[in-house]
Amino acid sequence: MTTVLIADDQPLQRFGFRMLLESQDDMTVAGEAANGVEATRMTAELHPDVVLMDVRMPGMDGIEATRRIVAGGGRSRVLILTTFDLDEYAYSGLRAGASGFLVKDAQPEELLSGIRAVATGDAVVAPSLTRRLLDAYVHHLPAATAPDAAPDPRLTALTDRETEILRVIGQGWTNTEIAERLHLAESTVKTHVGRILSKTGSRDRVQAVILAYDTKLVG
């Protein structure tokens, strides 16, 4: 059973999310928060699998709440709801440690699939949106480092094959695409991805994508 904390300042929005989630046999609502302060406190108390986080809330917004939840080191993962006209929030959400993004007017099945994916630490949520955000995100990174700069320490433990796979993860390839294009078994790709996450300290695939951009493997 996947437990979800709903964080949104609109009561009707929370009600709609609750009705949808409770219609699923594999989901239950752990609680509701009306702002970032409540979301942070309730996450620490309830340890939900997923926090469905609105961005714009009074007081502490969803980005700061996400940052504090991730910094707390718990198992809860954050799925941020955003809109195409608020890309600047999405950049901040990436940095804060969100595990996925969905547009707020997503179809119900998209939201449910997104929650399930984030709960299992699976592939990037809403690939079309995330790729769009990351394509823009790269332009917000600092200038490239000098050619003689020391390798990023987060990459030094990776094998050549793992570095190659991290690079294509950053380009938005799925495990199936990696397996087909690099002529590997999909189970082998999953093993490599798991090792990459472990060695680089990435919480999930979204954070691995950010790492690929940060370290200029992609860009």
UniProtKB/TrEMBL annotation:
Name of protein: Response regulator transcription factor
SMART domains the record matches: HTH_LUXR, REC
Span of domain HTH luxR-type: 151-216
Keywords, alphabetical: DNA-binding, Phosphoprotein, Transcription, Transcription regulation
Source superkingdom: Bacteria
Native source species: Streptomyces thinghirensis
Limits of the Response regulatory domain: 3-119
Modified residues (4-aspartylphosphate): 54
